Amino acid sequence: MSSTVAKAARRVTHELHGVVVSAGLMDKTVKVRVGGQKWNKIVNKWFADPKHYLVHDPNSSLRTGDVVSIAPGWPTSQHKRHYVKHIIAPFGDPIDKRPPVPTLEELIAERESKKEAKDERRTARRQEQHEKAVEEKQRRKAKLAKKQHTPIESTENSSAEQ
């Protein structure tokens, strides 16, 4: 069963091409510069206006200088919203000597398996908390019942003694 995020990621055909400007400083993350232009109406001229994206690289297979294709996906962290589709032109080591770049289907399958494992842990934890709460409630009821019986017996004993 696919999540709505996975379905949306499959539908996205938007693809950006850029150059890796920072790799290896963050685990499973690279910074990619994507070209762009901005019109300056005062000078009547286009100026370069590149954008930088933090991109999810799960196998750390990218190196600084690689030309890559990226696509928007789902939020992986606070600022990461894109993933690597494939390497267009490697810089340095050839692609054969690097860990493979996972496909979108592999990324979605991994994400869903992690989500299922998390849901199982959550239900187990909630079940355990529920059992503890029931046990604590029974213990309090028993303690309250014991407390209520003790003063009644002591008042009966004290009234019988008088």
In quaternary terms, these chains amount to single chain
Broad structural category: alpha+beta
- Quote the CATH topology of the largest domain: OB fold (Dihydrolipoamide Acetyltransferase, E2P)
Shape: elongated
**Rg, nearest Å:** 30 Å
Please tell me the total number of domains: 2
CATH superfamily placement of the largest domain: Nucleic acid-binding proteins
Mean pLDDT: 88
The proportion of residues in beta strands is 25-35%
N- and C-termini, Cα separation: 76 Å
Count every helix, treating DSSP H or I runs of 4 or more residues as helices. 2
Strand order of the largest sheet: 1-2-5-7-6
Describe, in plain words, how this protein is organized in 3D.
By secondary structure, the chain is of the alpha+beta class. The protein has two domains: 4-101, Beta Barrel (OB fold (Dihydrolipoamide Acetyltransferase, E2P)), CATH 2.40.50.140; 103-162. It is built from two helices and seven strands, in the order αβββββββα. It has helices at 4-11, 104-161; strands spanning 16-26, 29-34, 37-40, 45-48, 51-56, 67-72, 80-89. The strands form two sheets. The protein has a five-stranded mixed β-barrel with strand order 1-2-5-7-6. The chain is elongated, with a radius of gyration of 30 Å. The N and C termini lie far apart (76 Å). The model has no long low-confidence stretch (mean pLDDT 88). Residues 139-149 have a biased composition (Basic residues). Residues 151-162 have a biased composition (Polar residues). Residues 108-138 have a biased composition (Basic and acidic residues). Keywords: Ribonucleoprotein, Ribosomal protein. Pfam families: Ribosomal_S17 (PF00366).
